[in-house]
Each structure stands twice: as structure tokens, then as C-alpha cells.
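TL;DR need C-alpha cells for one chain.
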Amino acid sequence: MNAKTAHAVATGTEVVHLPNHRPRNDGGPLRPEWFETADVNLSAAERRASTLTTRRTVKKAWQAAWLVRAIECIDLTTLAGDDTPGRVKRLCAKARNPLRADLKEALGLGGRRLTTGAVCVYPTMVPVAVKALAGSGVPVASVATGFPTGLTPLKQRLEEIRYAVGEGAAEIDIVITRAHVLNGEWNALYDEVKQMREACGEAHLKAILATGELKTLSNVYKASMVAMQAGSDFIKTSTGTEAVNATLPVSLVMVRAIRDYLERTGLYVGFKPAGGIRASRDALAWLILMKEELGDEWLKPDLFRLGASALLADIERQLEHYVTGRYSSNDRHGMA
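>> reply
TL;DR here they are.
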């Protein structure tokens, strides 16, 4: 790779997995005055988002370094109805060793610990993943709370969180009740997320906003702020099942909310785009967004994750092209 292994792989010789050294976001009281008058200009957000990949380019060794960093930020995910323990074990093996040994050596990363940010599965698959990842340092994340719709009774959703945490999940991806946002029921949304945060205990909570169903960017900003005030450790765009999933304009609004929250409280909240992120160029676009809007601290997995399943194969394929000058077929880079 070089250029001193692309400046120690884009500013960080070792990545930080959850938990981290920063104070956790414990939230605080609901403060509607922080968001009630927010009015996001759609065309301005789209215009700013469109410049992200045109004003900044990442080439050659630096692009390879950024793609390695993207690997370290992936929540490698399987959320299929036909998931089996065997599939989850294979996914965990890939999370432990996401890049072929020969490519690591060629990139000058032979002695570097390289894993994905986490493995994300359904609650019933958590014990399988925990066992398969033992000793790796890779946390297990679990969706919960009636994923993907979140329309089961609250008591049941809270029990699902407790079950997943009890089985060893270190991170919980919850879904909010979209109706609370659409109806402007901010107290109800705050109380719901607060109870979910308490049910997580020591596990970190990622609040999925399902932004494709929130109708407006103003709603996205408001829901982001309420989720953070209720104690979310991360805010996440999508479940991956909405008609519209992660987009750069939506992500821009969410990271601006994170920045505003940091300025008001001094507390750091992470960001996770998910749904439809399949190509290396997509990963680079979101890394550029994080660097430009929030800075280098948000280029590590303690504050940034990419929810994806197919993305890793394309990144590995692009890194092989960087090393060899040739593109290989997709089937040479299986997920598991």
C-alpha cells in the first residue's frame, strides 16, 4: 500500500471497538426546544450531499487505505428468514478474517489485526455468533424490538432486548415507532427509546429511525435528536426493508443532528447508515461525509458503522484490483 501504509491506514494504527474510552451517552431530559422549530431545506441538503464525492477524491494507496478502514466499520449482517447456525458461523469466520491473507500481505498489513466492526444477527442466532466470535474482539449485534416494523407490544419488545443481551449481544439495534414521529408525539418516542436503553443495560443501543418512512428531513432531524436525548449510543438510518433506505441527504441531516447534540452536551453519538450499501464507492462516499461533517474521530467503528452484507465482497474485489491490476470475478470473494 505504502505512503507509510497510507498514513497508518487513514489515521489510526489500531481501530477501537465498543466499548470505548469516551463517556457513554446517557441522554437527559426531553428538550423539545432543541428541535421543534427545526426546518430542513430539502434542496439545500441534496445540493450539499451531491458535492461530497465531487469535491474530494481518494485515489490509489489512499483509496485502498480508506477501503480497509471501511472493512473495520462494517456490521456484517445476515437477517434472512432462512438463516441457519451454519450460515452464521460462516459469516463470523469472515468477520474474523475479512480479507484474504495474500491481500493483507501485499497491502503491508500482515501483522495488523483486521476484523469487521461487528456481526449483526437475529436474537435467536446471538448464542451461535457469540460462540463463533469468542476471543476475536468482534462484538455481536442483534436486531430487536419487533424488527423491522417495531409494531409488537412494548412489553414484548423490551423482553426481546433483554433476551438478546442475556445471550451475549453487546449491541442492540432497535426500531422506533414511526407513528410517534409522523404524529409529532415526541414524549411517547422519548419514553419508548428511554425504556429500550434501560433494557439494554451495558449493551450499546443503536436506534433505527427508518428514515424512508418519516416523510420529511425535518422529521428525520427531530427523531434523531429525540433518540439521542433518550440515550441512544448510535442513530441508524434504516432497517434495509423500507422502499428508500440510506441516502446521503438523509445521512447529512442525521450527522448534523449528531454535531448539534455534541455541541450542546459534549456527548458523542455514533452513526450507522444501512440498507442498499453494496459498492465500494458507496462506502467511500459515507466515509467522506463523516470526515467532512464530523471529523476523523468518526472514521472508526466506535462511532461509525456501515450496515451491509454484500459490501465486503466488493471491497475485497477492489483491493485485489489495487494489488494485482486485475478484476476477479465476484465468486472469488464469497461472504462466507
